[in-house]
TrEMBL record:
SUPFAM superfamilies per UniProt: Aldolase
UniProt key word Lyase: yes
Identification of the protein by name: Hydroxymethylglutaryl-CoA lyase
Domain Pyruvate carboxyltransferase: 1-271
A Pfam family assignment: HMGL-like
Family stated for the protein in its record: Belongs to the HMG-CoA lyase family.
Organism: Algoriphagus confluentis
Keyword Metal-binding in record: yes
Taxonomic path: Bacteria, Pseudomonadati, Bacteroidota, Cytophagia, Cytophagales
Length: 283
């Protein structure tokens, strides 16, 4: 079974011009009609850090969730954000960005890796009380541009720490688009075999021409959870100025279907979502 996570939050967050709240909600409502496993719809973070996401609570109130099968995921960067997100019963997952790069952890959440790990533990405790799940994104999971230490062994050390905290879902994140198919397969093979109790996801950034081979590499390594964004919009605004977009969902879908996976998506609603994406992102 393949889980597709659609990430309008990631697609929108770096856009400097504020997208009207009603437009955000209309777009996410259309995505809910498609049948994705999960929608990464917003974030509860400082509006000074990510101004585009300052209306996440208002967007949530405008979502039509009565018939939706998709689960909702919100990104948080600290305990306060987690507490804000957990106020809403509609949210199923809290996503936390934990970096294997000390430089990027400071840049992204203004905290050290040690502090971030303590935050992961605190959020995990809150999630257990509220009956929610935490998804930890290991950012810079395939390398970084800062010269910080990186190796597959380092990734395994981080996953071991998360396993001890009872984290059930870890998404390996190629924050700046440097992952090769060989490295993707290698990392997922090692992690899925060493930690069978953890669901591993792939949050990859890619040029359009490389989407298929990266999906196939992830499948070969044992990954069954993939993040994407329609038309490949987005990228982390905290990473670097030269952003590589998200994996284009409409390119991942045929790549996965060619591998024999039935994704159970409503293709007509997907086409409507594509049309709306062009409007939302002025493409």
């Amino acid at each position: 079974m393949i889980k597709l996570v659609e990430c309008p939050r990631d697609a929108m967050q770096g856009i400097p011009d504020f997208i009207d709240t009603a437009i955000k909600a209309a777009y996410i409502n259309q995505l809910l009609e498609v049948g994705f496993d999960t929608i990464d719809f917003g974030s509860f973070v400082s509006p000074k850090a990510i101004p585009q996401m300052r209306d996440t609570a208002e967007v949530l109130e405008m979502l039509d969730l009565h018939k939706a099968q998709s689960k909702l995921l919100a990104i948080v960067a600290n305990v306060r954000g987690a507490e804000d997100a957990l106020y809403f019963q509609e949210i199923d997952f809290l996503g936390f960005p934990l970096s294997v790069s000390e430089t990027f952890q400071q840049r992204n959440t203004n905290a050290s890796i040690a502090d971030a790990l303590r935050t992961v533990e605190a959020i995990q405790n809150l999630c257990e009380v509220k009956g929610k799940k935490q998804v930890v994104y290991l950012s810079m999971g395939f390398g970084n541009p800062y010269g910080d230490p990186y190796s597959p062994e380092l990734i395994a050390e981080f996953v071991e720490k998360l396993s001890q905290l009872q984290i059930e879902t870890v998404s390996l994140s190629d924050t700046i688009g440097v992952a090769t198919p060989e490295l993707i397969t290698q990392l997922f093979e090692v992690q899925t075999q060493a930690f069978p109790q953890i669901e591993f996801g792939a949050h990859l950034h890619s040029r359009p021409e490389s989407v298929g081979e990266k999906v196939w590499a992830g499948i070969k390594g044992g990954c069954r959870r993939f993040d994407g964004a329609l038309m490949g919009f987005g990228g982390c605004p905290m990473a670097k100025d030269d952003l590589v977009g998200n994996m284009a969902t409409e390119l991942m879908i045929p790549a996965l279907e060619q591998e024999g996976y039935d994704l159970g998506l409503n293709k007509s609603e997907l086409q409507e979502a594509m049309k709306l994406a062009k409007f939302v992102f002025n493409s």
